Each structure stands twice: as structure tokens, then as C-alpha cells.
Amino acid sequence: MDDINYRIDQFDTKTEIRSYAAMGLVAGIVGVLLCVVSLMANARLFFQSWFFAAVFWTGITLGCLCFISFIHVIRPKWGLPIVRILEAGSRMIPYVALAFLPVLLFGMHDIHPWLQSAVVSDDMSKAKLTYLQTPFFTLRWGIYFVIWTLLAYALSGWSYQQDVSGDEKLRQLRVNLGAPAIFLLFITITLAMTDWVMSLTPNWSSSMFGFMMIVSQVLGAFSLVLLIFLIFEDKYPWNGYFDERTAKDLGNILLFLTLIWAYVSFSQYLLIWSADLPREISFYVVRNGGEWRILAELIVVFQFAVPFLLLLSNRTKRSRFMLGSVAGLLLLTGVLNLYWIVMPAFGLHRFNIAWSDLAAFVAVGGFWISGMMHQLASRNLVPQNDYRIAEEDMEHARR
Amino acid sequence: MKMRMDILENQPVETKRDALLEGEQTLETVTHKVSSIVFEWNKHPRAWYVSLLVAFAFLGALTVGVAWLFYKGVGVWGINIPVGWGLAIVNFEWWMAIGQSLLLLSAGLLLMRQQWRKSISRILESTAIFAVMCAGIFPILHLGRPWVFYWLMPLGPNILGLWPQFRSPLVWDVFAMSTFMVVATLYWYMGLIPDIACLRDRTKNPTVQIITGVLALGWRGSARHWRRYQTAYYIVAGLCVAMTISAYSFVSFDFAMSIIPGWHSTFLPVFYVAGAIFEGVAIALTIIIPLRAWYGLQSYITDVHIDWLSKYLLGSNMVIVYGYFAEAFYTWYGGDKYEKLVLRNQMFGHYAPLFWIMMACNLIAPLILWSPRLRRNITIVFIVSIFVNLGMWLERFISLITSLSRSYIPSTWGFYTPSIWEIAVFIGSIGLFLFLMCLFVRFIPLMSLTELKTLLANDEGGKNHSR
Q1: Closest-CA distance of chain A to residue B206, Å
Q2: Considering CB atoms only, which of B6, B266, B335 is closest to A268?
Q3: Which residue has the higher pLDDT, B64 or A121?
Q4: Per the count of CB atoms within 10 A, which of A71, A157, A169, B272 is most buried?
């Protein structure tokens, strides 16, 4: 009886979520149409734009997967309202794998310089060239996505099953898989980001890069998920969850991730800048020169300084509007940050957002949002049969 | 919202066992147990006296080592060109890591509102401060002319006629350490104030009354006191977290900012901070497990605490393993031949046996703790913690010494073997640490009374202790 009431109560919220899914679908279709035009106008530019969009949305999906694994391991109370949103995001892994296909099938030569014979210089070792060759590259691409899909579907599947069966063993299963999953994700994402992004500058390497990308992805994913939660915050069943304590916790997580992002980005920059070795500094010479520098400075101010100062204050964290704004800002600067990392590698010396960039971003992102909202609406919006709910109730009763 | 109590009923036994205090505890029993360790000094267990004896013996080694060093100069150590930094820097790093990470742990757990920190926070903080005291002797001793160590401080043109060289990592260490000591002592002392007031109110000895009365800074425990105290405590904890992470990253910059192969790695700051937590948690286990056995504190530092610490050990271990992976992978991927040479030397060169012992300690030994059953066996946890302490010391040794002994030009290659005097100073620093720990146990409440009582205060009368 309880269960039926619960499902009926969620109905209105789910309708609204589905309307977002429809909007995403429309945006995606419009984006794809624009992309077709852009493909005919300039195929090279189109593939670069599409590649960027695919890397960004894969990053958001992986960020969701990393964060949900972490939540399953430490089981925090503040995780309760966002668990389902994160799970819906992490289940988009097969979709983003598809998003890579156009580039993988037709655009590799427009993206990866080590495929162009003129660029392959003497200082690239033979082993590294073999490692990056298309067959092995594609094989690894497949392996990463198989691993990620299995992890995402196992973790979210067990969580959905527990809603129905209430079996506590499923919780333990998630803990047992979650901890090794985090480690596996760190290794695979590092390798993937090396393949896809670091190899765009063939002679450059930095041991912090994989870690830095993971932190950016988690920050981006958490900002998006927080934003979605705050949009629906006053709707059943989420309306009971944005109390002072949860708001503060979520805000602090955002602050913490921002700080970690700034810390790893700054460390990498400082160490490469101070050593000034030719094989390393080339990365920053391009990205800090010309008009890219303006973007770099914007990122420092709006991905670190402004959110940091705002999130220090409890007033920001308590206000739904302010916290949502900061999350939105961080999501936007996350896009710019990745743009600043990826795009200069294509030799676009002028900082110039092409319209094909926007089209591809909207196309991939529109379908992503649509699919994710659809996933979200097809299950309970907050986990049932979770002992944290009962604990929460006990605390409310005590107050 | 509807109450879903049935879910709690179905919980596995594991979570029900989350007791942070065991046995029948009231406000009175907690106060009595903790303050009796300080007051009934003639009832200290034999282990305390034995530790003190060992500490004195080791301190003797320190005295002899330092005296000989001052008499003859740093030439009595094994350092040479190219290995100009020997055991002194290895020990400095090792002690520093313990200090930074334990303070980080105590403050970080406070900010994360982790209840289980309450009975171990005092031990963590004290260990942190003592470890940094031990770290502090090494930079001074290695100076060559240690009696003018104050030249490193920015005393300015008025006193010294010139500024120190701000671009020297040695000067950064001075700033890192002095900042640490100020903030850590402040945090530690703030936590102590209500407890000292409690001792002041309980003691009958007039001398102790005067000393504790002064140290308690007029604490009366009024609501207003508590309110301000809580706010200030959280702010200082926030400072501690920011300071420890940045200070220890700076210590890693000592190496990473150079262009010496093996040192110059962008991941090094994260690796150092995670390595410090790994090492710090291990040393916390090494200290807490015997302490709670000797003083019968099992009801206060329960198996839950040990379990949590072990999990933190595992978590930081994963970052370390990731660090080894990233280091090896990017050395290969980057293709720099000097970086490759360093890695090969670590694995198969002169110091290779140490490298493989380190790998066994840092990679294999912690794997044991993945099993919940073994993790609940206190003896096994203790043994693993010893392995990790050793492994992290070797980690410093290998990363620092191998890179220096095999750098760019073959004509500058050389080896380093620590001399007996360096080893004496290292053992001596352990003695100093042990001695300070003995004093701490004797004179200062081992656990924060205030914090422990908040575990009771959740329910009426302070009698229920379930959570």
C-alpha cells in the first residue's frame, strides 16, 4: 500500500523530469542538424568540435560513475537525495561510447597528430607510436567502455534491485565493488585521457594529468547533479532533503572539489613552469600565449577564486538559488577549462569558439540530458529501503 | 515523512556494532578513567617505565651522535658529492609526514563531523607535534654550522645585515615548520583547555591547581564560552587542513621543482600528501594499539576505531599504488631517457633490494587489510602498520638517494651509505619521540574528556551510549 502511494506521489515530479527529457531531445536533434551543415562546410573543424563534445560528456558521465562509487563506499547521509541522479548519469556510458563513433570511424586523422606522417617526429619512441596506432588505440577504447559499462550497470542495478527487494546484501555488494571500482576507474580514466587528450600534444607528458582530469570530471559531474537536484528540490520526494545540514554538506563537497581541482592544476602548472623543460613547457606555451591567455585567466577567476570565496560563506550554502548559481558557474567553467586544454592542440591559435563547437556540444549534450532524465524518471527518485532514510527519520523525530 | 523503522531492524549486525564507547559509561566514569591516568601516576603500567628506559637509551645515542657531529662536522656522515642529502633529509621527510598527516586527520575528521575521531584526536595531535619536533632537528644538524641556524629566519637587515635566500628550499622548510608548530600547538592547546579546567577542578594538590589554573585560561564552561570555543575550534581546524596540505606539498616541491630525474614529477605533491596520510595512519595504529592495551582503554578506543583507521590506511594506499602506476607509466610514455634510467636503477640498481622490500611493505602488506576478518584482528593490523612505517621510510630513501646517485652525467655518479653517526641520530630521534610520548601520557589527558562526553550527551542522562 505504502509503495503505491509513493509511486503516485512521485508522478508529478516525474512528468516534469520527462518534459526536460523532451527538451533535451529537441536540442539534440537541432544540434545534429546543425552538425550536418557544419560537416558539409568544414569536415575537419566539425570532427574537432564533435570530439571535444564527446570528451566533455564522457567526462561528466565518468565523473558521475566515480562519485557514485565513492558514495557507495562511504555511505554518507548527504548522498541520499543525489544517488539516483548520479546513477542515471553513470548509466549514460554506452551512449557516450556511441558519441565517439563518428570520430573513431571517420575523423581520426583530423584529431590525432600522431596519425599524420608529417608530425611524427624522431623524438617519439617507436614503442609509443605502436602504442598509439589506430588498432591498439581502438582496442583500448573498447576495453575502457566495456569496463565502465559493467561497473555502472552493476552498481546502479543493485541499487534499483534493493528498492524492490529490500535485500541488505545488495548494499554490501555495492560497498565491496565500490572500493576496487574507484581504483579501477582511476587507472582506466588516466589511460583513456592519455590516449584521447594528452596524445593531442604528442611529445608532452605529465604524471598529474590523469588525476587532474578525473578531478575536473568529478567536479563537473557533481556541479551538474547538484544543479539538477536544486531545480527539483521543492518537488516530492526531494522536498524533505534540502535541510540546513544537507545543504551545508553538499556546499562543502563542492568547495572541497573546487579546492582539489585548483590544487592539482596549480601544482602541475608550477612544477612545469619552474622546471621550464622543452618537452614539458610546450603545453603551457601555447595555452598561455595569445588570446588563450584570457581564457586561462577567466578560468582562474571563475573556476577558483569566485566559487571559493562564495562557498566559504554559510549563507551561500544555505540558499538554494546561490548554491545552484555557483554549481552552474562551475559547470560552465568546467566546459571552458576542457576547451582550454583540448582545443589549442588543434593549432587554433586564436581563441575563437566556432559555431560548430556549440552545435556539437548541444547535439551530444542534448541527447545526454534527455537520456539521463529518462533514466531518472523510470525509477524511484530517492532510494527506498535504505537504512539511511530510517536514520534520518529518527533524527527528525528526536528534534 | 513516513517513519521506516522496519529498515533499521533488518540491518546487518555489522552496523549495529558501531559502538564508539563500550560498557556502561556515564559522565562520571569517563572523567574518572581519563583523569586517573594523569593523577594516579604511581599506577602506570610497567610498559610505561620500559618505554621511558628505551627512550633514555636512544636519547643517549642522539647525544653521542650529535656531540661527535658538532665536534667533527658533517664529514662524519656518509654524505658526499653527488649525494649531498643523506639520512638527514630522509628522516626529516619521514617525521614531517607523520606530523602533517596526523594533524590533517584530526582536523579533517572534525570538519567532516566524524564521531569516531573523538577518542583518538588527542593522541593524533600530540603525536603530530612530537613528530615535527623530531623532524626539526635534522635540517639544523645538517647545516654544517648548526649554531647559526637562526640565519635561516627572516630576521632582516637590522639584525643580520641581510635577508635569507628566499629561493632556497631550506628556507621554505623553516617557514613550513614554524607555521606548522604555531597552528598545531594552537589547535592542540585549544582542545586541551576544557580538559585542563576539569583537572584543575578535580585535583587536591595546590601546586597542580595553580599550574592547571593558569593553563586553563579562566575556563568556566559557561554557555557563552562554549559557543565561542566551538566557532574558534572549527576555524582553527579549517586552517590546519589548509596548512598541512599546502605545507607538505611545499616539502614535495623541495624535490619536484628541481629538474633532477625521478624528482621532477608533477604528481609528486599528491603522492607526498597521500603518502603522508598512509604513513601517519600507520604510525597512529602503531601507537594506539599498544596504548589502549596497556592502559585498558578498549572501551574508549574500540575495535571500530581500529577498523576505521585501517580503512583510511587502505584508502591512502590506493592513491600510493596509483602514484607508482602513474610514475612508471608516464616515465615510459614520456620517453625521457634519464627518467627511464632512474626507474631502472631503482628496480635493478645498487639499491634494488631496498626497492623490493619497500614494494612488499607498501603494496603487498596492506592488501591483507582488505579482508574484514583479518582487519578485525588487532595483532595483524599492528604488524601491517609496522611494515608500512618501514616501507614509507624506504620510500623516502629510495626516491631521494637513487636520483642523486645516478643523475645526468656518468662522471658524477656515486654511492651513498649512511654512517653509524647518521643512524645514531635517527635512532636518537625515535628516542626523543618516545620520551615526549611518555611525558604526554603522564601529564596530559590521553583523550579529550569534552569530546568523549559529547558521545554520551546525545541521550538523556548521558547513560545511553549506543551511538
Answers
A1: 44
A2: B266
A3: B64
A4: B272
Q: Do A393 and B5 touch (CB under 8 A)?
A: yes
- Three cell numbers at B244? 598541512
Q: Using the beta-carbon criterion (under 8 Å), do B326 and A211 form an inter-chain contact? A: yes
Question: How many contiguous H segments (helices) and E segments (strands) does chain B have?
Answer: 18, 0
* B292-B298-B303 Cα angle (round to 5): 100
Among chain A residues, the shortest Cα distance to B458 is held by A398
Instruction: Render the burial of A165-187: b for 16+ CB within 10 Å, e for the rest.
Output: eeebebbebbeebbbebbbbbbb
Which chain B residue has the Cα nearest residue A76? B112
In chain A, whose CA is at the least distance from the CA of B336? A279
Please answer yes or no on whether A206 and B256 come within 8 Å at the CB atom: no
Taking 3-state DSSP, the helix, strand and coil percentages for chain B, each rounded to the nearest 5, stand at 75, 0, 25
Cβ–Cβ < 8 Å for B250, B177? no
DSSP assignment letter at A389: H
Higher pLDDT: B387 or B16? It is B387
Kindly determine whether residue A275 and residue B267, on different chains, have CB atoms separated by under 8 Å: no
Interchain pair A390, B5: CB under 8 A: yes
Q: Would you put residue B144 in left (φ > 0), alpha (ψ -120 to 50) or beta? A: left
A24/A196 Cα distance (integer angstroms)? 26
* Residue A201: how many other CB atoms lie within 10 Å: 16
Residues in chain B closer than 8 A to A66 (CB atoms)? none
From chain B, pick out residues whose CB is under 8 angstroms from the CB of A279: 334, 336
**For chain B, which residues make up each domain, given as ranges?**
27-455
Alpha carbon B164 to its chain centroid, in Å, reads 29
Helix or strand holding residue A356 (H, E): helix A355-377
Is B1's CB within 8 Å of A396's CB?
yes
The number of residues making up chain B comes to: 467
DSSP letters spanning A58-123:
HHHHHHHHHHHHHHHHH--GGGGGGHHHHHHHHTTHHHHHHHHHHIIIIIHHHH-GGGSTTT--TT
Closest-approach residue (CA) in chain A for B326: A207
Among A182, A187, A240, beta carbon nearest to B325: A187
Residue in B462, B451, B433, B452 with CA at minimum distance from that of residue B102 = B433
According to the per-residue pLDDT averaged within each range, which of A39-48, A53-62, B239-248 is highest?
Answer: A53-62
Give the minimum alpha-carbon distance from B130 to chain A in angstroms, rounded to a whole number. Answer: 28
Contact B96, B132 (CB under 8 A): yes
Side chain identity at residue A180, one-letter code:
P
Of B1, B322, B335, the CB nearest to A393: B1
CB contact under 8 A, A267 and B12: no
- Residue appearing with cell numbers 628496480: B347
Contacts of B287 by beta carbon, 8 Å cutoff, 6+ apart: B123, B127, B437
**Mutation site for B-interface testing, chosen from A207, A244, A263, A283 by largest number of B Cβ within 10 Å:** A207
Region for A156 from its dihedrals, namely left if φ exceeds 0, alpha if ψ lies in -120 to 50, beta otherwise = alpha
Cis peptide before B82 (omega within 30 of 0): yes
Mean pLDDT in residue range B220-228:
89
Residue by residue, DSSP assigns A310-350 as HHHSHHHHH-HHHHHHHHHHHHHHHHHHHHHHHGGGGT--S
The pLDDT of residue A62 is above 90: yes
The 10s digit of each residue's pLDDT in A125-161 is 777 878 888 888 899 999 999 999 999 999 999 998 8
Cα angle B135-B318-B98, degrees, rounded to a multiple of 5 = 15
